[in-house]
Amino acid sequence: MTPRSTEVTDVIVVGGGAAGLGLAHRLTETGAATVTVIEPPDGPLRPAERTWCYWGEGADGLDEVVGASWSRLRLHGADGRPVTVDPAPFSYRMVRSTDFERLVHARLARSDGGRLLRATVGSVTGVPGGAEVRCTLPGGWSLTLRARRVFDSRPLRALPPARTQLLQHFRGWFVRTRSARFDPAVADLMDFRVPQPVHGLAFGYVLPLAPDRALVEYTEFSRDALTTEAYESALGHYCRDVLGLGALTVERAEQGIIPMTDARFPRRSGAAVFRIGAAGGATRPATGYTFAAMQRQSRAVATALRDGHGTVLPAPHGRRALAMDAILLRALDTGRIDGPGFFTGLFRRVPAERLLRFLDGATSLREEWGIGLRTPVRPMLRTAAELPFLPRRSRPAARNGDDHR
Fold first, then answer.
1. End-to-end distance of the chain based on CA atoms, in angstroms?
2. pLDDT of the residue at 139
């Protein structure tokens, strides 16, 4: 194909998922830089509609795209007893990918320095003064773009070596029931009243959208994903036998896999090429939550560029948080702790606001020490003692990944 002339911009964002859209949103919001977002053209490379959830506090610039939120959170223990908490000042919020895309695409269209390009990226390489992105347009034409900085959110082909790697894998139904079955003010984060696998843990997840509509999911933390048929069977059991929803209509389904690993993710692949999103380690290893960390990084990058401080891409999670997550993952993987009992105990014994800050990596050392004393101390200490001596091994990256939370 005949190559087209090279184009130049301040920032290129590769990928239009939560990480890429979030960074473009903040860059155009602050006017920090001219930005080109490269998304795959229509076809198999474009992901299906997804939902991203996070807990937020106050106005965060995403109010336009928060499709639903919940002021109370609930967890059901394996014994069936519920615990309902009020996480104020936090609320649990849902963003649909199509709504986020519309917001960011409209902002790019209005911005003097913004641009959306539909193309397939072939390579990203460093060049003097920045980086170069070579891509192919839908008509087959090749195009080369250059920028002072490139932020690449494409999934990794292989995960970095890790001591422990589990998968958070799930399938969800958007259901409509014949009568009111849901409380729209309460989100069920973990419902352990489902059969538990031999290895790992499983739970239901319910986000009510109306008295007769909800996103209902079956989720596992384990080493291997299930077949679609197995997810469907588990969802049917959960909706019918646990929730007692009666007759329902499945309006849409979504499915995803999120690696839960203590691997070390490099945030750079070149002097001017930065890894963002799950590929840059934004996924919290012990929970799978990703969206909030992406947004924190995006705000930090946009602020640094606006203020002329150069590129600042902070670590998505602090060292203490990652160390604690590594211990928890290993303890879960070895079966030393009971997963449902562990998470249920935390929600019953730790104030909700403090627990959410802990899961978001925003607690002090003193608060973390207090939370640690409310966990199974001996198994956790044994796991902490052995971790430094365990080898890190490679494993292929999970496919069908979706930064759902």
1. 40
2. 85
